[in-house]
Amino acid sequence: MHHFSDRLNAAIQKKKTPALVGLDPRFDWLPADIVSNANRNHHTQAEIVAAAFEEFCLRIIDVVAPLVPAVKPQAAFFEEWGPAGCAALQRVILKAREAGLVVICDAKRGDIGSTAEAYARGYLAGENPDSAIWAADCLTVNPYLGSDTLEPFVNIAIERGAGIYVLVRTSNPGAGTFQDRKTDGTNLYECVAAAVEELAVKTKGAGNYGSIGAVVGATYPEELNQLRALMPHTPLLVPGYGSQGAGAGDVAGAFDNQGLGAIINSSRGINFAIRKAPYSEKFAPQEWEQAVEVATIDMIADLANHTPAGKLQ
Ligand SMILES: O=C(O)c1cc(=O)[nH]c(=O)n1[C@@H]1O[C@H](COP(=O)(O)O)[C@@H](O)[C@H]1O
After folding, report:
1. Is 182 a catalytic residue?
2. Residue 175 alpha carbon, nearest atom of ligand 1
């Protein structure tokens, strides 16, 4: 199957959940055995951190691949460590794809059209992992430079069966400073939403959704409900569940009545489940993978019990 949203929806229906696991490694929080393996086998700080991030993410992938449709590696944590970090990210993406997961690379790229085309060619492998160095199915994209800068991403997404998620209304505390600015009674994020919906319609697959999606934070449920209505053909990537304080009730409005149309991300809440109750009480530190597994299963049940995603079960 070539089309991004159709592939993603098939994966969501197969796994019966819209839960998305973010891969956001932080060195200070890594399990002790992973840190000592990396120290034993590498010498420079960058190589040690990169090797530890890779092992950590690959072990998470092994745990969550049978449970969820997709993962979202956060490029920033890897890029911080230069070439060693980037090589680790590249292998993590490939391994996730080999494990049958849809991979959304979270690098929030965006630039003038001709430069954006290079980003699109580099990241958007789409259906065939061999068609781009970064081998991702999908990329997060910043639309601030204007609609023409989205075009190269759209064209390459269509060609390769890839997707993008455009930042529309983000989850952070300062999201409103620019995104809520009004001109002629319309918020900036509503203008972006209208442009994204147009692209979603243009790229619609066999199902209801386009390959061009939107990032909408779970931490602003009112805006999320409004945007679901404004963008009926736009698949949503919804971050903010868990560590940023949003719960299943806050994301219920992101779905259509079949339980499709949105994927809900949790990064720290899954990656570092072992650091917080109830998992820190149930599991010893070295049992962190069991904590990852149970936290993922709990998130899946929470979404199934409190949102239309329950229809997928
Ligand atoms: O594009 C994103 O995924 C994103 C957009 C947004 O509005 N807010 C947001 O938190 N994110 C990302 O989602 C992840 C959130 O992680 P947790 O808060 O740990 O679940 C980080 O990688 C963020 O960069």
Report:
1. no
2. 7
Domains and CATH numbers, the chain: 4-307 (3.20.20.70)
% of residues, the chain, pLDDT over 70: 100
Global confidence as pTM:
0.98
The yes-or-no verdict on residue 113 having pLDDT over 80 is: yes
What is the distance between the alpha carbons of residues 165 and 160, in angstroms, rounded to a whole number? 16
Please report how many Cα atoms fall inside a 13 Å half-sphere around the Cα of residue 261, on the Cβ side. Answer: 26
Probe target for ligand 1 pocket from 24, 53, 264, with the most ligand atoms within 8 Å of CB: 24
Say which of 16, 72, 95, 108 is annotated catalytic.
108
> How do strand 19-23 and strand 70-73 relate by DSSP bridges?
parallel
Q: How many Å lie between the centroid of ligand 1 and the Cα of residue 175?
A: 12
Distance 174 CA to ligand 1 centre (A): 14
Does residue 179 line the site of ligand 1, with CB under 6 A? no
Q: Which residues pair with 248 in a beta bridge?
A: none
Rg from Cα positions in the chain: 19
- Has the ipTM of the complex gone over 0.95? yes
For residue range 217-255, what is the model confidence (pLDDT) as tens digits? 999 999 999 999 999 999 999 999 999 999 999 999 999
